[in-house]
Amino acid sequence: MTAPAAWSITVFEDRAPSGAHYRQNAGEPVCTVTNLVVSCTGTQIAGVGNNDADVRLTVSYSATVQCRNRGGQIVEVKTQSTSSTPAPDDTTELRNGTLVVAAFSAQNVPSNQAFENLAVCPNGNWTKVLLGTPRVTSFTYTLTFQGYTAPAITVTGP
């Protein structure tokens, strides 16, 4: 699934080195969600001098867990998990005043067991069962130039 129009890409020019601009044919990063993996394309930003950047991808997931007691009573419990993944150091590289940002994916996908562990049933004797499939409820991709306190690029969705 590619980024629908409702997904937001925000570029703050005052949070980047003066003269920074997307290199021709590079464009802004685009993020997609496939199953529970959020992946964002790379980009190239020229005019940054020697200013490197940090890239981070934060993803929130949700699932429903059913708690069942021995008498058959059922309680549904919503569980949420958030993982924040800083990009590896080699995700960005400076080349002659251009910041080259590689494609990046959040790989810290919570397991079904993690959602069950997060669920709180009325007491410990109840059995937890994951209902359906966990889903991505939101994500935020940020690119923050070193020396700046706020991101220059933010992509949010869904």
Label this structure with key terms:
158 residues, mainly beta, five-stranded antiparallel β-sheet, four-stranded antiparallel β-sheet, disordered N terminus
**Largest sheet geometry:** 5 strands, antiparallel
Mean pLDDT: 85
Number of helices: 1
| Residue runs with pLDDT of under 50 for 5 or more positions | 1-6
Radius of gyration: 20 Å
Number of domains: 1
How helical, in percent, are the residues? under 10%
Structural class: mainly beta
The N- to C-terminal Cα distance equals 11 Å
Oligomer: single chain
Sheet with the most strands: spatial strand order: 1-12-11-6-7
The proportion of strand residues reads over 45%
Coarse shape: elongated
In N-to-C order, the SSE pattern is EEEEEEEEEEHEE
Total strands: the figure is 12
Explain this structure.
This protein is mostly beta strands. The chain has one domain. 4% of the residues lie in helices and 52% in strands. The chain has one helix at residues 112-118; strands at 8-11, 21-22, 31-34, 37-40, 43-46, 53-68, 74-86, 92-95, 98-101, 104-106, 127-145, 153-157. It has a 5-stranded antiparallel β-sheet. A hairpin with a 2-residue loop joins strand 8 and strand 9. The radius of gyration is 20 Å and the shape is elongated. The termini are close together. The model is unreliable at 1-6 (pLDDT under 50).
